[in-house]
Amino acid sequence: MRRFRLTAYVTTFLFAATAALTGATAAQAAENTANAAATGYVALGDSYSSGVGSGSYDSKSGDCKRSTKAYPALWAAAHSPSSFDFTACSGARTGDVLANQLTPLGAGTGLVSISIGGNDAGFADVMTTCVLYSESTCVNRVNEARTYVTSTLPGLLDKVYAAIRAKAPAAHVVVLGYPRFYKLGGSCLAGLSETERTAINGAADLLNSTTSQRAVGHGFSFGDVTTTFSGHEICSGSPWLHSVNWTNIGESYHPTAAGQSGGYLPVFTSAA
Fold first, then answer.
1. Which whole-number Å values give the CA distances from 213 to 43, 133, 148, 222, 262, in the listed order?
2. Contact predicate 269/75, CB 8 Å
3. CA distances (Å), 129 to each of 28, 85, 126, in order?
4. 112 contacts 163 by C-beta, under 8 angstroms
5. pLDDT by residue for the chain (272 residues), tens digit each?
6. Burial degree of 123 (CB within 10 A; 0-12, 13-18, 19+)
7. Are 83 and 144 a contacting pair, CB within 8 Å?
8. Which residues lie across from 67 on neighbouring strands?
9. Residues classed as catalytic
10. Long-range contact pairs involving 211-215 (C-beta distance under 8 Å, separation at least 24)
11. Which of 78, 114, 250, 264 has the smallest number of Cβ neighbours within 10 A?
């Protein structure tokens, strides 16, 4: 009798364990199948992702100015994802991403890239103020942007990142940062003072650290481009960023084609 009970107990235990293992294996297989099917690439973000400043714009993208020389297009051409949706747009803020760029995301999305936050922080107005007004006015405007980055931007980034994860649960998401704009002690003979350049670089560093913290907090990767742009800032001997371009003001302070291929693409490729 005891042997029967023991045999029955062992049999029941083994059955339960086998069932649990089979269920876990089936669940893992289903997850692997879902991940294997998620091979599409969606490129979101602002002008640093759309490729403003690099030329060769797709006429169908209109004012979004999506370039064939932007890092998303270069990566897609080199890796041939199962699908490529390029919705990054010049001037985009976090609200624009939420309202206009997320439609292509879905279960089949395996990779997402995004740069966002610079326009929310008033990047264009900061640079315009610094170019046109006094050093003190410039530094004050930079400090206003810094306050916004620390107090308001994190919550906005959280909303964007949460929405991306909700719509593309299987995707690996890479958040790209921004370069420092100036080489301090560089070759520029005129323009902004060293104090102004230092303030602007410091604000870029703060924007990057804030963005990185929120990206990592959502389980995303952060791509830091300050290292690849080192030695290629404005006022360096080989800049990969446009300075003020009075004939095409919209390209000012944006990466050139070399900045996209040499500055952004290697960082994204490494993180992807």
1. 21, 33, 16, 9, 25
2. yes
3. 55, 35, 5
4. no
5. 434 344 444 344 334 444 444 444 544 444 444 445 799 999 999 999 999 999 999 999 999 999 999 999 999 999 999 999 999 999 999 999 999 999 999 999 999 999 999 999 999 999 999 999 999 999 999 999 999 999 999 999 999 999 999 999 999 999 999 999 999 999 887 789 999 999 999 999 999 999 999 999 999 999 999 999 999 999 999 999 999 888 888 899 999 999 999 999 999 999 99
6. buried
7. no
8. 57
9. 47, 254
10. 211/117, 211/157, 211/175, 211/177, 212/175, 212/177, 213/154, 214/154, 214/157, 214/158, 214/161, 215/157, 215/161, 215/173, 215/175
11. 78
**Token couple for 138:** 């410039």
CB 199 within 8 A of CB 242: no
> Measuring CA to CA, how many Å separate 84 from each of 111, 116, 160?
10, 19, 20
Place of tokens 């959280």: 158
